[in-house]
Amino acid sequence: MKEQWRLLNTNFNTAFTNMAVDKAVLVTSSEGKVLPTVRFYGWKPSAISIGYFQSLEEEVDLNTCRKLGVDYVRRITGGGAVFHEEELTYSIIISETHSQIPKNILESYGRICGAVMKGLDNLGIESEYVPINDIITGGKKISGNAQTRKAKTVLQHGTVLTDVDVDKMFSVLKVPNEKIKDKLIADVKQRVTSIKHVLGKEIRFADVAEAMKIGFEEEFEIELIEEPLSEEEKELSRKFEKECFSSMDWNHRR
After folding, report:
1. What is the rounded distance in angstroms from the CA atom of residue 138 to the CA atom of residue 143?
2. CATH code at position 111
3. How many domains does the structure of the chain reveal?
4. pLDDT in tens, 114-155
5. Whole-prediction pTM value?
6. Cβ distance 131 to 75 under 8 Å?
7. H helical segments located in the chain
């Protein structure tokens, strides 16, 4: 009998809620209260998440974000600034002592990204893993990923681009030298792709989520059982959103 893990499909939420839910599940998982969890979610409104160690003011054009109604939030994982709009985001939260998760961080990235690649394969998209945290197809990036380990628990989350608006992305991200902005935009358009661009058609969020669900089940040889957040996780999410992810102190801390 296959091991059962929990599937959370929380659909579309604000940036603050999305990050709060990831942290809430990290807490309950670290206390052994929930099964290993795979979560799929989207962002509404569009948002920028910055890495834990980044400066919000240096990375993000806050005035343009306000004009366009784009959220911004600091993640608990590292890495660079990411514009979230047309995409499916996944997270996996699991004990770092679980037999399915390599202790070596690079190997664990590869294992988890393998599930995403199998999900893409289910959509008819061949891809490959490029260490440390990218997945590419046809030489172009379609998924970026970030990981943290806290309280002996692994949290990895990443994006699977369903579409991409590079011009809008650069309107809300700061560029160190405006003179090279056009060149940067052209370069990113050459290096980044999406499910829509690869397949030549739009794919519904629900269909991408189903493909990814199967991908995780295939990679880890498990059965994902859809369950809601526990009452404790809902309470923790509200607490973390209010006290942390929607607060000026957290987002402007560096």
Report:
1. 13
2. 3.30.930.10
3. 1
4. 999 999 999 999 999 999 999 999 999 999 999 999 999 999
5. 0.95
6. no
7. 15-30, 56-59, 62-68, 105-122, 166-172, 181-191, 195-199, 205-220, 231-240, 248-251
